[in-house]
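Need tokens for this chain, all 365 residues.
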Amino acid sequence: MLKRLLFENLFAKILALVVSVLLWLYVTEQQTFQETMGVPLRLENIPEDLTLLGDAPGTDQIVLQGQGHFIRHRARGLHLTLDMSGAEKGRYIRRLTPADVSVPLEEAVEVLEIVAPQLLTAELDHLAIKSVPVVPATEHSPASGYARVGSPVVNPEVVAIRGAESIVAGVSSLRTEPISLRGATRMVVARARVDLGGLERVHCEPGQVAVALPVEKIETLTLANIDVVAETDTTRWKTRWQPEEVEIVLEGPVSFLVGVRDVPPVMHIPASSLEAGRYFFDLTVDAETGIRLVSREPEPAVADSSDTTAIVGPTLPVEPILLDVTMDLPEGISVIVVTPDRFHIVVEDVNEESVEEGDLILPAS
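Here are the structure tokens for all 365 residues:
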């Protein structure tokens, strides 16, 4: 029974449904509707010597009125256009009106109201172009026993940035996106994007650079008979020290060590802070603090009343003396061992008679 009622006169029923829908559409299309929707906001004709600081609103909410229930779909081509041809540097303020909305002629819609933002506020600055150097940024480490050496090669070395004068003026250099050195055993060559670091509305030309990063094997080099010089005020003090020569073990890239072998370094001891007296030092080598002499108590001496040449001077202070030792080594080469590691320094007044050279001995270890 139900089946017969459902399918009896089926064509007439379908036709009646179609007619009803078409009638509903016709009636609704004759009625007037209002719709709130967002439209793109476009800033046009900004003077060539000016640029925006920050970002302007990308959309604006407006109220539309027109016939038909599907007004939103017919208004997809609408946008709000703002002519800024008369703008100047500084703050630009403009009230937005329905007349600023561009409505295609074939669309029978009307803009009733600008909802938000109703007021456009923008900051304008002079446009500037500046050339800045590019510094490669790296991440990870080369393979064990290898290290990045020397200066990187960047092509081009400088790029041109274009943007607001107040922003561009503060840029002295730019970095690349990180270039991986993971496991490298030879020179790494890559193309890297220039990282603008979040600079707003700044453009870079070119946006990429070619980078070559030298990587070399790390080796050790032993050098004997390295001269030791204790530097002090020669107008007031005369200074003697032992040892006068040391043996050092260096670590660094192969190409750097070749140059050091040809021109051996000199070990400089800054003794200007020492007053007259005998000083005994232990030498330490540390990757962070470098080479240091740390004072220690002298070995006790046996009193000899017949010795009239003994130096009379102040005893060693309670607080240890620290002397930072330097060597004229290229960057990238480090000292890992110095032999011997015991030092004896005697500081005397230039007007006093010196003790015999044989009295200058190293402290026992």
